[in-house]
Specification:
- The chain is 33% helix and 23% strand.
- The chain is of the alpha/beta class.
- The strands form 2 sheets. Strands 4, 5, 6, 7, 8, 9, 10, 11 and 12 form a 9-stranded mixed β-sheet that branches. Strands 3-2-1-13 form a 4-stranded antiparallel β-sheet.
- Strand 2 and strand 3 form a beta hairpin.
- Helix 6 packs parallel to helix 7.
- The protein is globular.
- The mean pLDDT is 96.
């Protein structure tokens, strides 16, 4: 039996062009958006897990790589020293209990790195370890939030970008609306998109909890009904956590709801689903305690006869979706007409989650190499490193 004898966590930064803060008073990661000529410095972290038999697992965070998640990863990492890296279920269960007072957002990167280690040890992909059979994943373009700076600043601009995505190969498109949550503007955008693109693309909207009230969500929900949208996601400022409120919303609109991005783990998601608060489940290997946690949620959804949609993008996300029957689209998040996806440019193997990475049929490939199937650019990470934490 091998044992984990060293864990390293590398903090690093990188610059992204044509992006900036939507509001200088709101420094949250989800408030970044199009800013022509701008540049923003983002921070992420990389996890390396080593075992005494020479095996090594790696993962570089995408959207989970915030300071809050980093703090939890740093708290959790020492608990893995001396453990068998292949006993992922036992490690998952212990960390879940040990960090029950927290939101578990730092758990995922550690679990994903353990899966990468296992794949490399046995010379096979994580997708194959999971029983993956889907080698190409239908993708949707998931936009940055609407802006007031000449990017996605009008319903016409959204349709023009959807047209661009359609020409690139996408057959599905998701709107993130304006941060100020004006219901008439949001509803007009939805109806206009439905009129112009509804016969060619599957359409969704995610207000990202920016609509102020249940009544606002209902107003936009009726517009989604009129436009034939595929789903409405996290509409208003309950922060996506009230099963009762979303059950009532489901009773009053026809458009299916996609919820549970903002609650962690299998049991709360089961409660939300059983309470009637959603039509689709959300899962994310970064947010939901790793690949181990994500697949539990996928199987929960399958047992209940509903679909499970993977949130956001990354090699771990593709591996999970490859092994899921009940999932419709891979989310290429976040994209816009004149700015890149803000995921870290850390791949030395051609892997990409940029807008143009889909094939002509609008699909993304599932990496088939050992582990997660990607090669990280450690020169880039080390050149931009701001801190290194070691546990032995």
């Amino acid at each position: 039996m091998s044992k984990i004898d060293r864990i390293e966590i590398h903090e690093f930064t990188f610059d992204v062009e044509n992006l900036g803060l939507e509001s200088e008073s709101e420094k949250a990661v989800y408030n970044i958006g199009y800013k022509p000529g701008g540049k923003i410095e983002l921070s992420k972290y990389a996890v390396v897990i080593r075992a005494d038999d020479g095996t090594r697992g790696e993962y570089v965070t995408h959207w989970v790589g915030t300071k809050a998640a980093l703090a939890q990863s740093l708290m959790m990492a020492p608990n893995l020293i001396g453990r068998d890296p292949e006993q992922r279920e036992g490690i998952f269960d212990d960390l879940k209990r040990e960090f029950r007072q927290y939101d578990h957002m730092g758990h995922g990167p550690l679990d994903i790195a353990l899966w990468d280690l296992a794949g490399k040890k046995y010379g096979t992909s994580v997708a194959k370890l999971l029983g993956g059979y889907r080698e190409r994943l239908p993708a949707y373009a998931s936009t940055y939030h609407a802006d007031r700076r000449g990017g996605l600043d009008s319903k016409e601009a959204f349709v023009a970008f959807a047209e661009q995505c359609f020409e690139t190969g996408y057959r599905a498109f998701k709107i993130h609306g304006w941060h100020d949550g004006d219901t008439r503007e949001e509803a007009d955008n939805v109806r206009y998109m439905g009129e112009r693109m509804g016969d060619r693309m599957t359409l969704m909207i995610d207000p990202a909890c920016e609509l102020r009230t249940f009544a606002d969500a209902l107003y936009v929900g009726h517009a989604c009904d009129d436009a034939g949208f595929f789903w409405l996601e996290d509409p208003f400022r309950d922060a996506g956590t009230s099963a009762f409120a979303h059950k009532r919303l489901r009773e009053k609109i026809k458009t299916p709801l996609l919820q549970t991005e903002h609650i962690r783990g299998i049991e709360p998601k089961a409660d939300f689903l059983i309470a009637g608060g959603t039509d689709f489940l959300r899962a994310d290997p970064e947010y939901d305690m790793g690949i181990t946690g994500c697949m539990k949620i996928a199987h929960l959804a399958e047992a209940m006869g509903v679909d499970c949609e993977i949130h956001a993008c990354g090699p771990a996300h593709r591996a999970c979706m490859s092994a899921m029957r009940n999932s419709n689209f891979y989310e290429v998040a976040l994209v816009g007409p004149d700015c890149p996806n803000a995921v870290p440019p850390v791949y030395a193997c051609g892997y990409s989650d940029e807008l143009d990475a889909v094939d002509a049929q609008g699909c993304m490939p599932v990496p088939q190499g050992p582990g997660l199937g990607v090669v990280y650019d450690w020169d880039f990470i080390q050149h931009r490193r701001t801190a290194r934490h070691c546990f032995e």
